[in-house]
Amino acid sequence: MVEEIDPLLSIFRGENSLMIIENILDLIQTQTFFALERFEGETDVYLKLEGLNLAGSIKIKTALRMLKGLETRQMVSPGRNKIIESSSGNLGIALSMICHERGYEFCCVVDPNISPRSLELIRLYGGRIEFVTEPDPNGGYLQSRIQRIEELLAADPTLVWTNQYANPDNVLAHYETTAVEIHSQFPKLDFLFIGAGTTGTLVGCARYFAEKSPLTKIIAVDPVGSVTFGGPSKRRLIPGLGTSRRPEITCLDNVHKVITVSEEDTIRTSLEVLDRYSLFIGPSTGTVLHGVRCYPLDFQKNATIVVISPDFGDKYLDTVYNPAWVQKHYAMAELTDAACQPSRPGKG
User: Fold this and answer.
1) Quick one: which of 255, 265, 238 has its CA closest to 348?
2) How confident is the model over 175-230, as pLDDT tens digits?
3) 55, 50, 49: which is closest to 96 by C-alpha?
4) Are 114 and 130 in contact (CB under 8 A)?
5) Dihedral angle, C-alpha 240, 244, 247, 253, nearest 10 °
6) Global pTM value
7) Which of 80, 135, 339, 343 has a C-alpha 20 to 30 A away from that of 26?
8) What is the SS3 assignment for 333?
9) In 3-state terms, what secondary structure has residue 159?
């Protein structure tokens, strides 16, 4: 008879393998998936947990690839250049950490929607914060942040903008890593749901699966109020997904459908996952999981579904997971599924 060992007990017994690393940039998690059993009816959903990465999010991959690209093209070097970027939180944290390790000064342009926890982490690694407070014409802050970057670039020739919105290395980061990791674990994947922010993860994964697994359906999920896919602008309070200005790298050639989700449903789904599975997800993950429920076709009983989970919920304790903040900004008693609006993407 084989003895059943509790996984936690095996840790205390020292039975897990030990890996010694010498550089913080080696702390990149690639192959951890969490099974949400019977998430929708009898359908299981597999979450790719990018929150286990160094810096706490998928953005470490983007940051590394963009900075490596600049260095390879000899556009930046430590001591000669300073790095600047616009961020709602996660990329700013990732770049501040990498720049600290490699000897670059870093400036992060942010807006009022960034979480206090994210600000603290960027500053902890030596990042300088530039705040913008005036919304752009679409009611968001993205164009305002970019305008501030352009002003700072004009004033300081040593500054170099990584520009996640137009940089092809943002796409390549996920074509070369995230998509490969998912495909190696799920070679016959039916559906891949991806939240749309800068769309680097979406475009990179969609391109890879179109080449390697063309039967896999790529579903983009965007918050209500984002203009990325041509929807009407609306004020949004939760950072991470959506834009008030379409990123230059956005392309829908290999995306099968776009679904939009309200911030109210993002909050509701995030809280449900914490309650049902004891998993503390970030709101971007909650948005995409609600998108799974909004998908207009019934899933086959045995369909394989993967959702990319960009981060965990620790940076959102003051917002999404704070009942006072939620009640202040949302009429939670009026939650409905009316915000689920699947649409067919055009070519981009």
Assistant:
1) 255
2) 999 999 999 999 999 999 999 999 999 999 999 999 999 999 999 999 999 999 99
3) 55
4) no
5) 90
6) 0.88
7) 80
8) helix
9) strand
